[in-house]
From TrEMBL:
Signal peptide: none annotated. It comes from Saccharothrix syringae. It holds the Pfam family Methyltransf_25. CDD domains: AdoMet_MTases (cd02440). Gene3D superfamilies: Vaccinia Virus protein VP39 (3.40.50.150). This is Class I SAM-dependent methyltransferase. One of its GO terms (molecular function) is methyltransferase activity. It comes from the Bacteria. GO terms for biological process: methylation. Residues 47-143 form the Methyltransferase domain. Keywords: Methyltransferase, Transferase.
């Protein structure tokens, strides 16, 4: 299944991957807002969330006053992000787009966010470079890139078979989710199977969706970022940021045009 197909199918119940999606969205936005404030100074910023999914980061950042635009490869996920924003009376322009071809002008946003382990859906060095080059292109000089991934250096050392089960209570009944990971022979790529086992009408139904990731190590990803012209590349741990995954930050070299958002 393609990444787009995976998230098209997942969009309707993506929130079930969290014990409390709304609370997690607020926590993540607070952590990202603090990180951006430390890097660029206080105040609202123009932000592109280029892998917005159903709006987990974009909605929270918009609620904090940032001027957010959002894109996602999945039209179904992007449509849900738009609905989530409207339900909260938030302005959030959303479009379906591939992060390797972002529909924004050059030097148009101060911050680009690519969170939730989205970048490792790109399975080749050429594709990762293309996406990072696009993020570099749309950033204003001096702008900030923020990418989150799983802690892949540790993961590749042990190659775990998946994630433990996680239960959620919904109005329709209990839902249990877990993942199985099938590692490729190269030790770098793995096929993920996401299981959602839902209680409906006294019976249990199982839904399985599949996708593939590249377990990109930190040095490799940092090297790709530097290779497209980004500077000040650094990693930040969850204990430092309060974000649930490690964060890579990088800057576009300063000087030149200002943001179209002012």
């Amino acid at each position: 299944m393609t990444a787009r197909g995976f998230y098209d199918r997942l969009a309707v119940d993506y929130h079930l991957l969290y014990a409390d999606w709304h609370a997690s969205a607020h926590r993540q936005a607070d952590a990202l807002d603090a990180l951006v404030g430390r890097a660029l100074g206080p105040g609202a910023r123009s932000v592109l969330d280029c892998a917005c999914g159903i709006g987990t980061q974009a909605v929270g950042l918009a609620a904090l006053g940032h001027r957010v635009v959002a894109t996602d490869l999945s039209p179904t996920a992007a449509a849900r992000a738009r609905r989530e924003a409207r339900a909260r009376d938030l302005r959030l322009p959303v479009a379906a787009a591939d992060m390797r071809a972002l529909p924004l002008p050059a030097a148009s946003v101060e911050v680009v966010v690519c969170a939730d382990n989205a970048l490792p859906h790109l399975l080749t060095a050429a594709d990762v470079r293309a996406a990072l080059a696009e993020m570099h292109r749309v950033l204003v000089p001096g702008g900030l890139l923020v990418v989150s991934t799983r802690p892949y250096d540790e993961i590749r050392a042990t190659r775990p078979p998946g994630t433990p089960p996680h239960g959620s209570d919904t109005p329709a009944g209990r839902v249990v989710t877990f993942q199985l990971w099938h590692w490729h022979d190269d030790g770098e790529h793995y096929d993920l199977e996401l299981f959602r086992v839902a209680e409906r009408g006294g019976a249990w139904e199982t839904r399985v969706d599949r996708t593939t990731y590249w377990a990109l190590g930190r040095d490799r990803l940092a090297g790709f970022a530097a290779g497209v012209g980004l500077v000040d590349v650094a990693w930040h741990e969850p204990g430092e940021t309060g974000f649930f995954q490690p964060l890579l930050t990088a800057r576009k070299p300063a000087g030149g045009a200002r943001s179209l958002f002012g």
